[in-house]
NADH-quinone oxidoreductase subunit I
Amino acid sequence: MQPLSNRAKQVDKKPMTLAERAYLPAIFQGLSITMRHFFMKKPTIRYPEEQRPFSPVFRGLHVLKRDEQGRERCTACGLCAVACPAEAITMVAGERKKGEEGLYREEKYAVSYEINMLRCIFCGLCEEACPKAAVYLQADKMAPPRFERDEFIYGKNRLVEPVSPDNRSKRGIQLTEEQAQQLRAKMDAQLA
C-alpha cells in the first residue's frame, strides 16, 4: 500500500548491548540522581517541631480581645461574619444580664462565636470590619495541625484571650503598664 505522504521514516532497531539488557545505564543514572539529592538543601522542614520564620505580612490565628478591665470587647454585631468571604464565622448574640457587667463590655455579647479554620482564608477582613477592635489576627501564631475536622472549629474557649495581662496577644490594642497593674491588682483581689 502506498503511504499518503512521503514523511514516513524508516527506523533502524539497533540491538541492545549486554549492559543495556541488564539495565546498568538506567540503574547508574538513577543512583546518581539519588546521590545528588543526598547533598542538596532540604526544601521541607519537620513541622510542627520546626517552624519557618513568619513573613512580616503574615496573618495567623484569630484572637478575641479584652478591654483594659478584662471584659470581652465583642458585641456580636456580626460585621465580621458579613465581611468574611469564606463564611467561616458564625455567632449567636445574647443580652448581658444583671451582674455580668464585669464579663462583657456592652449590653450585647456573643454567646457563641465560632470560626471554622478549615474555611478561613486568613484575609483579615474580619479584623478590618470590627468596629470595637475585638478581632485580631495574631502574627506569631498559626493553626496547629489536628487530626479531626471538629478540632478546627474554634469556639470562644480558644479564641478569647486570657484575662491576665501577661498572657495577652501582642496584636491590637494593648494595655498601658498602669492598666496592666490595675488589672493584676483586681485579679489578685478576686483570688484572695
